[in-house]
């Protein structure tokens, strides 16, 4: 399977925002976004022309793909399926991305980053409704319970769990309370720009 093997900090610098691809490093003072705001590469610090509409759409699409760690083919299929949903394709797209098992595990603090949570899912560390699942793109539904398939993993401390999720510390079980609304998805994403890109 294809995957990106280069510097993750370079991706954050290219998009100009923190994508939180390296977990705790992104939250500290070592994050390159806080130290240098220039784009990566030899000519990153030079003045650039005003971006076109196409450039803005492309950058927004690339940003979302990198946040969730999805390649183009799978992302395009998410977009095509979201277009068939009534009442806002952009919101439907973000809901599908948020309800992925690897993302939910990250949101619950079961991984240092989405990439780390994805790795733990592939290793079969988690179960959904008592059944071991090792597919990161597994789509959760309202009422699903996320637990540990074998031994518990380290849980991130001082984490604010989103409203649509809950975590039972005693039972070590997370639950999808409901399908997330757009305002509950705390991401700086302009989903309408992404849909415009794929509507060309």
Structure description:
- By secondary structure, this protein is an alpha+beta fold.
- It has 3 domains: 1-41, Orthogonal Bundle (Ribosomal Protein S4 Delta 41, Chain A, domain 1); 53-99 and 186-200, Ribosomal Protein S4 Delta 41, Chain A, domain 1; 101-179, RNA-binding S4 domain (Structural Genomics Hypothetical 15.5 Kd Protein In mrcA-pckA Intergenic Region, Chain A), CATH 3.10.290.
- It contains 9 helices and 5 strands, in the order H-H-H-H-H-H-H-H-E-E-E-E-E-H.
- The chain has helices at 8-15, 24-27, 32-35, 53-68, 72-83, 89-98, 101-107, 114-122, 191-198, and strands at 126-128, 131-132, 145-148, 165-168, 173-176.
- The chain has a 5-stranded antiparallel beta sheet with strand order 2-1-3-5-4, with helices on one face.
- The longest helix is centred in the N-terminal third of the chain and has 16 residues, at 53-68.
- The mean pLDDT is 84.
Q: Mind sketching the topology for me?
A:
Elements: H1 8-15, H2 24-27, H3 32-35, H4 53-68, H5 72-83, H6 89-98, H7 101-107, H8 114-122, E1 126-128, E2 131-132, E3 145-148, E4 165-168, E5 173-176, H9 191-198
Antiparallel strand pairs: 1-2, 1-3, 3-5, 4-5
Helix pairs in contact: 4-9, 5-6, 6-9, 7-8
């Amino acid at each position: 399977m294809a995957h990106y093997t280069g510097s993750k900090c370079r991706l954050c610098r290219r998009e100009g925002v923190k994508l939180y691809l390296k977990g705790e490093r992104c939250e500290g003072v070592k994050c390159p976004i806080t130290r240098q705001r220039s784009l990566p590469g030899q000519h990153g610090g030079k003045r650039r022309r005003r971006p076109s509409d196409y450039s803005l759409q492309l950058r927004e699409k690339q940003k979302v793909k990198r946040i969730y760690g999805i390649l183009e083919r799978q992302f395009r299929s998410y977009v095509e399926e979201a277009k068939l949903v009534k009442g806002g394709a952009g919101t439907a797209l973000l809901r599908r991305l948020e309800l992925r098992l690897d993302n939910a595990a990250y949101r619950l603090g079961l991984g240092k980053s989405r990439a780390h949570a994805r790795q733990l899912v592939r290793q079969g560390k988690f179960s959904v409704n008592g059944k071991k699942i090792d597919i990161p793109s597994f789509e959760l539904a309202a009422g699903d319970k996320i637990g540990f398939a074998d031994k518990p993993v380290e849980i991130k401390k001082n984490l604010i769990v989103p409203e649509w999720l809950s975590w039972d510390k005693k039972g070590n079980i997370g639950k999808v309370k409901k399908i997330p609304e757009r305002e509950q998805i705390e991401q700086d994403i302009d989903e309408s720009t992404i849909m415009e890109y794929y509507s060309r």
